[in-house]
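Q: What structure does this chain adopt?
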Amino acid sequence: MSKINYREDQLPIIQYENGKMAVPAVPGAGKTFIVTNLVAKLLEEKRQGKGKILILTYMNSAVNNFKIRIKKILEEKNIDEKNSYEVMTIHSLAVKIIKEKPEIVMLNEDFNIADDLQKTMILNECINNFKINGGEKAFRFFLKEQKDPIWADRQLDAWEKGFYDLVQNTISELKYKDISPQKLEEYMRENRRGILKIILPIYKEYERRLKANGLLDYDDMLILAYKALSIDEDLKIKYQNKYQYVFEDECQDSNEIQGKIIGLICEEHNNLVRVGDINQSITGTFSSSDPKFFKEFIEDSDYCYRMDMSNRSSKDIINLANELTRYVTQNLQPECRDALEQMDIKTVPKNKGYKENPKPDKYQISYKYYKTFDKEIEQTVKFVRNIHKRYPDKSIGILVPYNDHINLVAKELIKEDLEFEELGPNSLRKRRIIDNIAIIIDFILNCDEKEKLIEVLDKVYIKTDNKEGKKDFLQLLRETNLTVEELLYDEECTKELIIDTDSDLYESFLFGLKNLKNIIEYPLTRIDKLILFIGNSMMMEDEERAIVDYLGFYVKYLLAENNSMNLQQIYNLLSDRKNRVFSYIIEVVSEINGYEALPGSITVCNYHKSKGLEWDCVFLLGMTQFNFPDNIYEKFQCDKWYLKEKYKNPESNIKAEIDFMLHGEVTKNYAKEIKENLIKEKIRLLYVGITRAKEMLILSASEKNSATDRNKQNPSMYLNILKNIIDKKGE
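A:
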């Protein structure tokens, strides 16, 4: 094996032997490369002694990536130390700790883990049951008075859409603050107003269901693992001796209790390496993570080596990211200047054998400003089409502020007949498999209606490039006197419907009829099994098959909770596009194997989902003041337009209520703090977006959301700052 040519910013890291080491790393610096090679070096030198090296990360796909890379390096070096290291998520570690001695935290050995999908299913049902069983009035109490019925429906729809996240985040915070449903109930006896009043019954029901099924959620796991290590000295010593070294990846996304668990395990040997990028901390608004914990570790560590070189992006794109950092750290309002760490990205030295930065033949950064967001999407897709046609091997990423925007871009890409991938819970293409199963169930419920049969054949089974021929054939089906029964069971009559019986149109038509006949005859005693049977009747890719499996699991869970559910209710459920569980199923399946943008691919995702990815060309849409605010006096997304003035910032209301419950007073201005934290995270989100691009970057904003919208929106201040830099460089 040839000797690895480490860069000068990597050399001090690879020479690490022991102690606490912080490794702040810029985007594209090669964090996974340096961690895997350092772990292999320590194993080669047998520094782990009789113990092991533990590598912690936050995504299962990252776990697999680390395992594959370390195994490959060890095999190339002929090092037989495969049992001397472990790679796992922080939550897997927590489960391992609890299972050692569950009795310490008053659990029996039969407990199970509610993964995010199970948690979503249970919490979704708890919210629905609360509203059905008398909670709807209390739920609507917080909405603004609205006489216009159309706007009243919009308000209710918006409140329902955001309520799940609010409940989920509140329950997590209550658990971390050691506030049980019983403690909360005692407090609410004297404090009957506030949003916590409607969260209490949901929290009680959620905890009851977890306990009834012997389940722990991820918050419980971390809390109980820390408690077990704190209470039982022998258990703590066992883990300290077991793991001589601990590596933590992406530690900018770590929360306080995760840091405490890792701290206890490393207390004896003090060998801890934490790698991350404060400037890419973008999960704080929907989790308990906070970059301050990594900042504190950097201050307290024995060594701090910065990986500040990156070969991902061109020099021009790197300069733009550095200019954003410079402006934020020097000119933004003082409360928000720490949003980014002043750490300039450097290009990789030339002619030293390293992979070098892309070198476009001209300046390839630009900005656009449109009248409407609709126009912004339309023109962006036209640019994408032209770039894809001119440079078919270049990957393209289209980044939008919110999940709802992904569908808007996807529809425009479909119009242009462009192949693309959607990342996130609102994927039209991944949702299609759920819609198709719903269409088939609708046909089962109305199997004597020919139009229902035609709809299934059209949307699910008939596959052909001959669009006009398909359209004519479906019209012929409508006009024929043949009944549904004749079409399904009389093979001779179908031959008269088409001239070319060898065509893909006719073959897929027959394939559809055959499968629908089998589906109709399938017994309805187990609806969850019927879902799986329907799925198997369709031509599916692996991801779609996984979605169907999850659907079957979800329906089985619902039937266990309510055995009187019928097929009509299941159809209504599958047709409900607001159902949070389906969105989560799509997201889970998308993340199982991770995602990598291949040459020539087009990807649509939100800014959050882009982290860890890279494209040759990146479009950053929606760069308005609302999406990327710079001061707390602007219009904020955390201020909900549909709620009464007193409750318009529900998150700050809840934090203030919890604070009062614990201390007898409200100790902070939570509305101000939340807005400042949101400003900081949005800055980091923009930084992440910019640093996804290798060669070409296009930033854009629009004056209005649509042509009928009366409200104007200003471009983000950051767009104006970057615009001035682009203009100077572009000259």
